[in-house]
């Protein structure tokens, strides 16, 4: 049975995911789209044989739509997700789930009231083969309890519109999600310190930043966020346990020896680096939806946690690096917690 | 438009490819299957909602079938492929195309008579991301003309049924195909020399073997085939050009430091190593079939060439390592040659 | 002309350095030794044909001694070094130069009063080929200004006597020295945070620790000190500049593929890891002494700086991770400063 | 006790070794030198405080000389070595021991007649830390019996004077020696095949060449010799055993990520690559001489074997790649053999 997906938001990300449903993932079809830009929606719809609907609400409630993909402008996410829950339909929401913790909690509460999981949030790192191997190693216990994680998130350049808080909100948020999952632990405090800024940035931006997180279990995480590193898109992650260290691999790439150097290419953007992770993310989500199973990817609670933790990091940045406690609600049993 | 695929042969390989058409590749459906073992065919058909047909001929000519996948017993391949050409239907044939050069030539001639390419042979290395990167580097000319290629093809163990000629026919054949493509050059002679045999083999087997090939352009290839290397499935390939060297990567894998060692896991079989290559192979083939384009993967001529070259290698092995000239016909213009 | 070296302290380290003067470094001879343990001194002296002298003072002033090596108990270092300065003789002092900043300053002042450099302190990382390559890369400017340095200093295990302050005093002190040199910058603050402790430690010890340093130029350094990591002795250092990253290599070591793993050995102690650096350290020092040149290795000022900075780190550790400003005097012109 | 070394031949290599005895190795002094170019000899002697002697014979028999280093023109080696044996003095002879097998045998016989080993031949690879680690792994038996060795010996460029036979005589000779030692096995046949020649060579030169060797024990060796590879000096060696593979490391070198590439520098000449091996070679030789022990490095027999095997390789090259049997005498018990 083919899953009929309705897509809210046909911008760059939306189109890329539509391509996945069409060309990469089996068992799904995009049957309806909507966008504030009606012309763009029409063009995309024509390409894949979908219907254009006037707005998110009509799309969500359309009998042609089994499941919803939300890739619209961030501030509209919560409303569409709440609407999908009201309609009892599975919904995949690109990050962020909502722009405030309060709105995230409204989703969390609505989903609990509904009684089963409908929401998956688009954190794709959990679907990357390398992170999954790391998790296998950590979960096996062969390295003992994890104690420290060292991470780096580097990007060649960012445009002028990228401001200092986005280092947490848009960039570090990926590590925040994947580390909570990797460690099966909660982040309880955040601190952001700012090294000398690179001269290769727009003047208003604090870049690089070093973010320090502590988990409930006492694991310490240091994360370098450097979004104008010039040389490439480079994701590093090393977890230190009581009996050893496991490290995320760089992507496999031919090595070349020429002109006195031996080396490999560094990817230039996140699309190349995480293409396979995106494919797996949508393959598994579609599989779950098709069989009526609850999604196993990042939950509404994970979306809430990411927002609260990034808020704490931003507050630390704005207060010259004070340690900010993450004010997270107790995790409900519904989401694997004890509350 | 969904490509309706008929599958001849529902053994292990056949089932694995059926899974690909069902779960991995979009735009295809398996609509008919056949197998000498009717019970097995019925079971597989039931799983994917396909029709069981009594034999290859009926399957090929069925109006429910747009394209044919041949994964039956090797000696039956040529007949099915010829039949598919007669029916004017695209056919994907697992290696070998045929068990003799003569039968391969019959396919080659039938396809030429038909006037456009219908046949693709199942050499999947050309679809591996690492080999494709190697080809990009070589084709770019940045390393100058290629001069030498060093290869190793290692397998943990083989069963008793694996005999010495299979080192060329079943194992080296993958390098033979991928190197002809990588170098865009033809192999003109073969020589097989036999080191001391490993004690970890069945007594009748010559293992390891070193195969030496020369191309028309003068490139020399050395290929270690070692099918009882115990430690893992390990594929190495290094091309030496006038200004540098390019090397196939090992698969990306987390590195672990523990107990005095720093290292990564070695894959244990070809399925894990080339899973993504198989997926790409069928994705691209399905895409070509769906749009009515000629396939771009290994052709019937490549299937013929592989058979003639492996025959030369086997003859060298059987004559104590004499250099055996490959007696290949001139390549027809139809297949990019000048004859 | 052979440099006649007198050695104060013939314990394990002293003997190892005596072996260097005897077997590894040309142009030097150990002519006199002294030790509180007279029997040990006699035994060592007999082995290398040196005279035993009753105490440091007599050794320093002996006409048989051109230069002094201080490898006695830490609290005695300052006195011997001051004595050597008074005698106008070059002196190599194992770390620490002194156990308090005040005593270090006495040495610094005495040396300035003497008018030329006589003192070298035994920080051997600056002589390691890998760190020297890092410095070359950083000094070349090809990576732009340095912004961040990530380090790890891991040791398999430590004995019960190793206490929490030693993580800074005995372990991190090596990074503190080498990073000041690598960056040509001064450390101005220190902060120590404590992850969950490993279960593989003596109960009184805080292990691992994460030390954060800031330099006058705004470079931020994070240093993991983990002295019960079990798996090996592992030194990591990565400097992030505006246009790229340079990383200290692991020691060259054969790689082995066997039993499903591909890997290399990790060194088990600092002696194996830095043997060549120690050799170079003494080769260069002896060369300078032989030609009457001032030593170019770590100076008395560097010894003072290391003590002040480790003190700041210890204070942070003892105050739950507060940021502690390093209260260093202005650097005199004599030592390359502006004061 | 200082070993007084007399040096015959003060060219580039001679001077480099003299520097080792002076600056690097303890326990030796160069007391006498001689050279056809008397002015050069005088200049070198003045630098190190040695006496100039009129010729090799006087140097060898001088009472000021305990041991002899032969670094003169190749064709004169045998005569000097024979003279040193006649004088009963240890002699270190740079490769080749002699330019013909017959002359090598004269040395072998003279040394046997003398009754104990005096001769060491200058193959330095056996002193390289990486090769020694390889030998440890192979000798441990953990990989089972060795079956195959893959090698490459690459050099950036060679001058016009370098001719095709030198690929065996001057270049491959290092692998020939180190592999005989690594495998503890004898090479019994040689075959040289010639790939397409690089355009980056002088026209008379066959470059690259692939050399195939077989040992008495059945191990097969393939060795790529490529002396105009442009990109660097690159030595590769991989031994394949029944249960695994061990590989020579590249030299440790900082890795740099910049401008889209991640990589390390490749050494540009053999001096940088094997500097430490040369140091160890002379350190161990001096140590043996000083204690009156027989040298443990490459023997006169190894010098003979290298000459016979390179001759076989040259003959194969000159006869279009025929397999040439190595006509080696049985190895005398004196040299660890059974004859």
From TrEMBL, chains A, B, C, D:
Enzyme class: oxidoreductase
Organism phylogeny: Bacteria, Bacillati, Actinomycetota, Actinomycetes, Kitasatosporales
Pfam (any one): GFO_IDH_MocA_C
SUPFAM superfamilies xref list: Glyceraldehyde-3-phosphate dehydrogenase-like, C-terminal domain, NAD(P)-binding Rossmann-fold domains
Reactions catalysed, as given in the entry: myo-inositol + NAD(+) = scyllo-inosose + NADH + H(+)
E.C. number(s) listed in UniProt: 1.1.1.18
Keywords carried by this UniProt record: NAD, Oxidoreductase
Domain of life: Bacteria
Residue stretches making up the Gfo/Idh/MocA-like oxidoreductase N-terminal domain: 3-123
Gene behind this protein: iolG
Tagged with keyword Oxidoreductase: yes
Family classification: Belongs to the Gfo/Idh/MocA family.
Species, as recorded: Streptomyces bluensis
Function of the molecule: Involved in the oxidation of myo-inositol (MI) to 2-keto-myo-inositol (2KMI or 2-inosose).
SUBUNIT field: Homotetramer.
Identification of the protein by name: Inositol 2-dehydrogenase
Domain Gfo/Idh/MocA-like oxidoreductase C-terminal: 135-323
InterPro entries tied to this protein: Gfo-Idh-MocA_inositol_DH, Gfo/Idh/MocA-like_OxRdtase_C, Gfo/Idh/MocA-like_OxRdtase_N, MI/DCI_dehydrogenase, NAD(P)-bd_dom_sf
């Amino acid at each position: 049975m083919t899953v009929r997906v309705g897509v809210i938001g046909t911008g760059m990300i939306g189109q890329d995911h539509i391509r996945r449903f069409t060309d990469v993932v089996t068992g799904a079809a995009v049957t309806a789209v909507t966008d504030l830009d009606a012309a763009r929606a029409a063009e995309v719809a024509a390409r894949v044989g979908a219907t254009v609907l006037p707005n998110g609400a009509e799309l969500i409630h359309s009998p042609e739509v089994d499941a919803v993909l939300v890739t619209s402008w961030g501030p509209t996410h919560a409303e569409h997700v709440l609407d999908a829950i009201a309609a009892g339909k599975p919904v995949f929401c690109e990050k962020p789930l909502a722009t405030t913790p309060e709105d995230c909690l409204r989703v969390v509460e609505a989903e609990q009231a509904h009684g089963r999981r409908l929401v998956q949030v688009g954190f794709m790192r959990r679907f990357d083969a390398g992170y999954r191997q790391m998790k296998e190693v950590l979960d096996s216990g062969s390295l003992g309890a994890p104690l420290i994680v060292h991470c780096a998130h580097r990007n060649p350049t960012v445009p002028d519109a990228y401001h200092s808080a986005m280092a947490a909100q848009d960039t570090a948020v990926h590590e925040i999600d994947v580390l909570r999952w990797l460690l099966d632990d909660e982040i309880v405090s955040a601190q952001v310190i700012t090294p000398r800024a690179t001269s290769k940035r727009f003047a208003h931006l604090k870049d690089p930043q070093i973010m320090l997180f502590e988990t409930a279990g006492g694991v310490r995480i240091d994360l370098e966020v450097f979004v104008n590193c010039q040389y490439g898109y480079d994701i590093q992650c090393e977890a230190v346990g009581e009996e050893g260290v496991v490290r995320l691999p760089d992507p496999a790439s031919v090595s070349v020896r020429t002109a006195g150097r031996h080396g490999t290419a560094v990817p230039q953007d996140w699309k190349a680096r995480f293409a396979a992770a995106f494919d797996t993310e949508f393959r598994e989500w579609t599989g779950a939806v098709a069989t009526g199973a609850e999604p196993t990817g990042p939950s509404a609670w994970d979306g809430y946690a990411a927002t609260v933790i990034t808020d704490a990091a931003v507050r630390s940045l704005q207060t010259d690096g004070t340690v900010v406690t993450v004010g997270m609600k107790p995790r409900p049993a519904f989401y694997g917690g004890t509350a």
